[in-house]
Amino acid sequence: MRTEEIISFLKADENFDFTTDTPASSLTSFRVGGRVRVVAYPKNRDAFCELTRRLASSETKYVVLGCGSNVLAPDEGYDGVFVMTTKLTGLSIEGNTLTAECGRGITSCASSAARAGLGGLAFAYGIPGSVGGAVYMNAGAYGSEIKDIIISADCWDAARGEVLTLTKDELRFGYRDSALRHNGLTVLSAAFSLFPEDTEKITAEMNDYMNRRRDKQPLEYPSAGSVFKRAPGHFTGKLIEDAGLKGYRVGGAEVSEKHAGFIINAGGATAEDVKTLVAVIEARVFELFGVRLERELIYL
Ligand SMILES: Cc1cc2nc3c(=O)[nH]c(=O)nc-3n(C[C@H](O)[C@H](O)[C@H](O)COP(=O)(O)OP(=O)(O)OC[C@H]3O[C@@H](n4cnc5c(N)ncnc54)[C@H](O)[C@@H]3O)c2cc1C
To answer: Residue 266 domain-assigned?
Structure first.
């Protein structure tokens, strides 16, 4: 679809907000990236499905994003549509099951669960992503992952115009991996199986995790979290530190002094700076330790 067609479609329907020619740096936690042709914010599931169906059938370039906390957007901009899920935030709790729409923050889900006296999601408190992004990535922390608590996810096949409910098995989770990374489906909502637990106990656990994050992670700088996956048998941050790369800088991108697994935007970083730094780290760690690092950060 041409830009004017997309805009007239979005304008004609009150179920969308949108912007044009918007810097991706304002939409991603790394604060990096050039201008995006159109950024659309569907306000409900039907609007989301209708828009992505149209974009898919017209072969218009688009990407679905939640909080943009695990992506690197290109400097040259994105000649397509960012479909943001941040207005799809419904949440319900029935018995021990919490169901949330894809754009709801996973940290907010953890807080809601805690208030309802349901444990199981505390590990996700402090992960700055959405439910959709967390399911897609099989996000995890402190020994737990999304796969440990998920029951199923309603997913949208924009190419076929079908909603499918995928069970945990069908979602084929792996370490920071799921079937969604390979089948092109979008998460609309997900249901999580939790268990009764004392609100105060869960809150203490969540606060402990948050304090550990503040102690260990450079939260004062823009970043996308850990850039690499854990290398089997190693702590990736330690490998990078032992390679002498703490504080190493390319342009505005820097290996964090606080946590060498993070690359921070120390000011004015470009996507090219980040990519060059990633390549330096990969080469140095392989040369010194024979370990091939695998990237967790997604290049759009
Ligand atoms: C400071 C910091 C700390 C972090 N700590 C952790 C951590 O402890 N553990 C961890 O696992 N991650 C961590 N992350 C990384 C990131 O927050 C997670 O990967 C998170 O799950 C990404 O969610 P998002 O909504 O931001 O996804 P985005 O960055 O918006 O998107 C990431 C990918 O998911 C896809 N996607 C987004 N929404 C959907 C959807 N509805 N359906 C299908 N695909 C979708 C996108 O297309 C993209 O490919 C951290 C990041 C930061 C900045």
So the answer is: yes
- Residue 62 sits in a domain whose CATH number is 3.30.43.10
Q: Which of 26, 69, 157 to mutate to test the pocket of ligand 1 (most atoms within 8 A of CB)?
A: 69
The CA-atom distances, in angstroms, between 270 and each of 120, 185, 202, 264, 281 are: 38, 30, 39, 11, 17
**Residue 205 catalytic?**
no
Please say if 4 is a catalytic residue. Answer: no
Q: Is 231 found in the same domain as 288? A: yes
How does the average pLDDT of the chain come out, rounded? 97
Is 176 assigned a catalytic role? yes
Same domain? For 268 and 178 the reply is no
Rounded CA separation 69/164 (Å): 26
Are 102 and 180 part of one and the same domain? yes
Residue of minimum CA distance from atom 1 in ligand 1? 225
28 lines ligand 1 (CB under 6 A): no
User: 97: which strand partners?
Assistant: 94, 193
CA–centroid distance, 63 to ligand 1, in Å, is 13
pLDDT tens digit sequence for 94-152: 999 999 999 999 999 999 999 999 999 999 999 999 999 999 999 999 999 999 999 99
